[in-house]
Amino acid sequence: MIEIKNVSKTFATADNDVEALKGVTLSIADGDIYGIIGMSGAGKSTLVRCINMLERPTEGSVEIDGVDITRLSEAELRSVRRDITMIFQGFNLLMQRTCLKNVCFPLELAGVNKTEARKRAMELLDLIGLADKANAYPAQLSGGQQQRIAIARALATNPKVLLCDEATSALDPNTTHSILELIREINQKMGITAVIITHQMSVVEEICNKVAILDHGVVVEQGEVGEVFSNPKSAAGKRLVYPAGEEDTAVVAGSGKPTIRVVFNGADATATPLIARMAVQTGVEASIAYAATRSLQGKIYGTMLLNVSSEEDAEKAIAFISEREGVIAEEVEKDAD
Amino acid sequence: MLTNAFSMETLMEAWEIFKTQFPLAIWETVYVTLLSAAIAIIIGLPLGVIFVTGEKGGILPLPAPVMKILNFIINVLRSVPFLILMILVFPLTRAIVGTVVGTPATVVPLVIAAFPFVSRLVEGSLREVNPNTIEMAQSMGASPMQIITKVMIPESVPALISNATNAIITILGYSAMSGIIGGGGLGKIAINYGYYRYKYLIMIFAVVLLVVIVQVIQSLGTRLAIKADKRLKNKQ
To answer: In terms of pTM, does the model score above 0.80?
Structure first.
């Protein structure tokens, strides 16, 4: 259990103080895959570095299983850091060591004897599927393979928490997918809590169960991924979910016909096609004016705007759609015309 | 003059001197250079580490005045021309070696001239280590000493080797210069025969040998540095 309470971090620069974090409060339960998402400069990296005290918060506390680590000495922190390891955007492997020795590195630091360390490292290389690269140097590996080695290294000390700082941002979509799969596997098999820092919606959607949206050092939204992404309330959340600008206004104002907003909030993605079935059963033909829906773990989240030809049709459509579980329909009020 | 310098007679004389004097001179030059380099590295390496780790925001910050004094001393030592430094350290040389002339005596000024230079080269090499790599080590619970011995130094080995090569070649140049004030080796021969006795041929021999030694050291150093660098791809 990680409890971040009211954490603030201010960096003093020559001409002014920069507040990277302002009163951040988050709680990350054991076994969570917790996403922290935000634009660059939002304070994500600073926040994740407050979880292992690479950055000491200016204010507030960070409790790991009830221990406030902001009060620990450097020496005490070193042992805490064996329980909270980290992977990075740039992998940060030791380029002059073989892969096997890279994985041995944290064990060496902890004073584990050489034979035991090698044995453990080989097991981990096996787990990540790169046992054949044990004696290769990082430069001989692809980016995805390097990140796998970095993950093996982060797991060497049997940590409780894995911090991932933009761990897939330097990778192509396929490799990103396979690294996320690996993180999920680790989370499920070993029960390791993962904290995922990213600016990519797709990463959070793919593996996180919880998410916090960080904007200018403030947590503007947090909760279950589906809830937050289906109905973002904050400006920053809306920017992330609707990068092309907020849904309707233009669409709605432009059409002279009744418009219905359909909000999917965890509807079953495999159920029968909603709009087609509506046309067949009620005879209402709707045209889709706007749609931004996404599928998360088999459920649909998002918004759709439908145009229908008359108020009567609108009522019928709303009645029909509202019967479906996890879907809400409402008529969009028009203010101008 | 020139024809005279290359006549059969002078050629024979030069060959005689070459046979009798050069083996010892080469040995003296090589051992003085390598011994001085080794001692300079022993002193310069930790100093270079301190320059990187001891600064504000480094992994083992030292009080700012200490860093200022260290920097000042190194800069002063580096600004004194070697010829003058040799004379300035006579008292120290006499205290350590017992004499100021002869080959072993030149080791003292050579070390004093070289270790500040070496410390700056080490500093430069260590600064090339990616700060993210150091942060990684910190995130894994490495102590400052572990970061120095397991990350900073091993990761900069290729740069350290090529800089050590540079240092050795510079020291070789200094050692030749020390021939002027009583140091032994190829420098002494070049100066004694070429400058004082106008036997240019001997001087040219000495210079050619110095060039050969520099070439050998440089190509060895380059090869070692490349061999040590595991960042280069397509190489086992």
So the answer is: yes
